[in-house]
Amino acid sequence: MSAEIVGAEGLTLAALLTPWIGAPLIWLARGNTNRREAVTLITAVVLVGLVLALYELVAAGARPTLTLVDPLPGLAIAFTVEPLGMLFALIASGLWLVTSVYSIGYMRGHHEENQTRFYIFFALALGATIGLAFSGNLLTLFIFYEALTLSTYPLVTHHGDEAARAGGRTYLGILLSTSIGFLLLAIIVTASYAGTLDFVPGGILAGTAPNWVLGVLLALYVFGIGKAAVMPFHRWLPAAMVAPTPVSALLHAVAVVKAGVFSVLKVVIYVFGIDLVAEIPMSHWLAYVAAATILIASIVALRKDNLKARLAYSTVSQLSYIVLGALLADSWGIVGGAMHIATHAFGKITLFFAAGAIYVASGRTRVSQLRGLGRAMPITMGAFLIGSLSIVGLPPFGGAWSKWFLLFGTLDAGQYVFMAVLLVSSLLNIFYLVSIPMRAFFSAPDPDLAGQGEAPPLCVAALVVTAAGCLALFLFPDALYRLLLPLVGL
Q1: What are phi and psi of 79, to 5 degrees?
Q2: Are the CB atoms for 102 and 353 separated by under 8 Å?
Q3: How many domains does the chain have?
Q4: More confident residue, 184 or 413
Q5: Residue 403 lies inside a defined structural domain of this protein
Q6: 122 lies in a domain?
Q7: Is the CB of residue 33 less than 8 Å from the CB of residue 104?
Q8: Which 8-state DSSP code applies to residue 446?
């Protein structure tokens, strides 16, 4: 075995273990607030460094692999670092670092209780996310998918009141019932037909069963991966907004929800294969379900006055952009969907950071309470405007590229109805997102805002960084684009 292979395996193992090692170290540092937060930040920095080192290998064409346990043939706990997982790991690890900085300002500024528990489960959740991102087969994906659900439950219920417990029950109930009832069944059926659970470029199911059987199997995956929030299995996401804003920001704008759509893309590319999905009639009907989710969730978002609830339904809508891109079974739809994982992550985490900053600084949680707030909190509301424009898909922000490729995918596939859905949804994005900073900057200020200022500096710094990321993704898309092209054989 060459030194290069050993090095790649060592980097993979180190990246997988770092958050799990960081969690007990955070607990050991619980007696000193500064030390505990330093451990959190150091763990996040180390993880980012390891993931960047792996990115260099993957971008050069390497596919680092690692098998931890192989108890039975075909049932290994194994990992392969390929382009889609690399993208997800880069986003999750990078934004964990930014969110850790934000969390320090937010948790201190809001005087939250149980902060040590918060940071510990945050680290465990990131460990599960990296395991999911690097999963080399369906068994490994399922294990870490479930680990992510369980490790985020204490974060969702962090406040411990009745609303938090009710939201946690909905969160856990929907995600576990869909994964055990549908996803696990789909994995078992896949193993029986394909004889393997490995992720293989081009898929493992072609020619193994009639198309109607494969169509039912595809539906089990789409609905069984409840974290993708395809309607009607979406209610867990708005229910989870009872969590502290840093949880909403990273786990429900990045890690948890992106774990869902990442898994859908992974199944389409490496279990079915794009060509097979294009031949299955059920994929067309499932695409209509995703399109309906896009529009219905956008309309619901328009009606929400609670800021975090509006952002939650916006996320439900935006996730189905990615599901739709996967089900188009078109190269550009796949690239656009994968790219939207990154561009939406930066846009939406900026919006959640801003919502948390508004709450910490002013105690306001409703859109109707934000009149004139832009004059008191110009940096926060300016970042909110940037995040909104990126999600709408307007240049010069990153969302323009992912939406362009998704639109090109609908055109290339001849699916003009879906093109219309994406365009109408983007118009709705303007109404329910861009109207918020417009109200904040151009409405007469509320007299109660006299003397109001920005949130703690760490909160403001974090949202400035993610807003800048929205711009950077537009100006420098090549690295992301080149990373994703091998997914479609280009």
Answers
A1: -135, 140
A2: yes
A3: 1
A4: 184
A5: yes
A6: no
A7: no
A8: P
Residue 204 CB partners (closer than 8 Å, separation 6+): 190, 194, 196, 198, 270, 271, 273
In terms of Cα–Cα distance, which of 289, 149, 291, 156 is closest to 233?
289
| Helical packing angle, 115-133 and 3-28, nearest 10° | 160
Q: Is residue 151 part of a domain?
A: no
Find tokens 């993610």 and name the residue. 466
Q: Where are the beta strands (DSSP E) in 42-160?
A: 65-69, 77-80
In a domain, 416, yes or no: yes
From 427, 425, 422, select the one nearest 411 (Cα to Cα): 422
Cβ atoms of 271 and 109 closer than 8 Å: no
Residues 6+ apart with CB under 8 A from 387: 346, 347, 348, 349, 350, 351, 354, 466, 467, 470
pLDDT surpasses 70 at 410: yes
Helices 256-267 and 331-362 meet at what angle, rounded to 10?
A: 170
Is 135 within 8 Å of 144 (Cβ atoms)? yes
Long-range contacts of 360-365 (CB under 8 A, 24+ apart): 360/105, 360/106, 360/109, 360/110, 360/455, 360/456, 360/459, 361/452, 361/453, 361/454, 361/455, 362/449, 362/452, 365/306, 365/307, 365/308
Residues 6+ apart with CB under 8 A from 251: 125, 152, 155, 240, 243
Lowest-confidence pick of 73-77, 300-304, 344-348, 398-402: 73-77
Q: Of 110-119, 223-232, 359-368, 422-431, where does mean pLDDT reach its minimum?
A: 110-119
CA–CA gap between residue 417 and residue 194 (Å, rounded): 34
Task: Kindly state the DSSP code that residue 268 receives in the 8-state scheme.
Answer: I
3-state secondary structure of 329: coil
> Helices in 201-330 by DSSP H: which ranges?
211-224, 236-239, 245-250, 256-267, 274-279, 281-303, 307-327
Q: What does the pLDDT look like over 53-83, one tens digit per residue?
A: 999 999 988 999 998 888 777 788 999 999 9
User: How distant is the alpha carbon of residue 140 from its chain centre?
Assistant: 19
Distance CA 246, CA 145 (A): 21
Q: How many Å apart are CA 71 and CA 79, to the nearest integer?
A: 15
- Supply the pLDDT for residue 109: 67
Residue at token pair 């909905």:
170
Which residue from 433, 236, 452, 431 is spatially nearest to 352, judged by alpha carbons?
Answer: 433
Domain of residue 426, residue span: 280-490
